Amino acid sequence: MVKAVIFDLDGVIVSTDRLHYEAWKKMADKEHIPFNEQINHRLRGVSRMASLDIILEHAQKTYTKEEKQALATYKNNVYVSLLKQLNEKAILPHVLEVINTLKQKGIQIAIGSSSKNTPTILKQIGLDQTFDAVADGNDITHSKPHPEVFLKAAEKLDIDPLSCLVIEDAISGIQAAKAAGMKAFGVGDAKHAELIDYAADDLRDILHVIDQ
Ligand code: BG6
Ligand code: MG
After folding, report:
1. Which ligand has the minimum distance to the alpha carbon of residue 13?
2. Which residue has a Cα nearest atom 8 of ligand 1?
């Protein structure tokens, strides 16, 4: 039986994809590194430093640890200033309805996100008091597909991972959920992940899974 639902943040609750893209693009252009939507696609669910390593695969020079840190900081500063434009209108369709229904059913809800900006984003969209637990990039040392962030969310909720269901839009996130022993519900890109338990276009389909 599902006792808790753990939501990924970026791409499930809110669409920050475009903002991540713009910020990385600005950094890549500054460094004359080729960067496009296809490369951006590979960054979903992946931590900031791991994302930078993917982008630097296309760089002409090798960057030192310090230089890499500076590039990540540059990108994050641009990203954080773009986050100021986020508000509740950025919440993806059906999210609020699903959250309210889960609460009515007595199901615990949590966030499991690789992003260190999770607290800022939740505040911007007015959902900082909504979840029973939040596990994010600030709590973990291993990014998805490692299960750490979801195990941390289950631990904060004090619920057995086997009773948790994860909603994800990234393949790395589905892999992380399955590695944590959880059920995985894929939306967007993650609908085609190999290990998926449930896939849907409409987030409300999760309510059928809960009722099973
Ligand atoms: C994930 C995004 O939620 O957070 C990734 O899908 C991003 O694209 C990662 O790289 C880390 O985000 P941040 O905000 O800590 O740089
Ligand atoms: Mg995501």
Report:
1. 2
2. 44
Domain residues for 177? 4-15+88-210
Is there a single domain that holds both residue 160 and residue 202?
yes
| The ligand 1 atom nearest the CA atom of 121 | 14
pTM above 0.85, yes or no: yes
- Take atom 2 of ligand 1 and give the residue whose Cα is closest: 45
pLDDT band at 154; cut points 50, 70, 90: very high
- One-letter-per-residue 3-state SS of 192-210: HCCCCCEECCCHHHHHHHH
For residue 104, what is the domain's CATH number?
A: 3.40.50.1000
How many domains, in total, are found in the chain?
Answer: 2
CATH number of 62's domain: 1.10.150.240
> With 0-12 CB in 10 A as exposed, 13-18 as middle and 19+ as buried, what is 96?
middle
C-beta 16 within 6 A of ligand 1: no
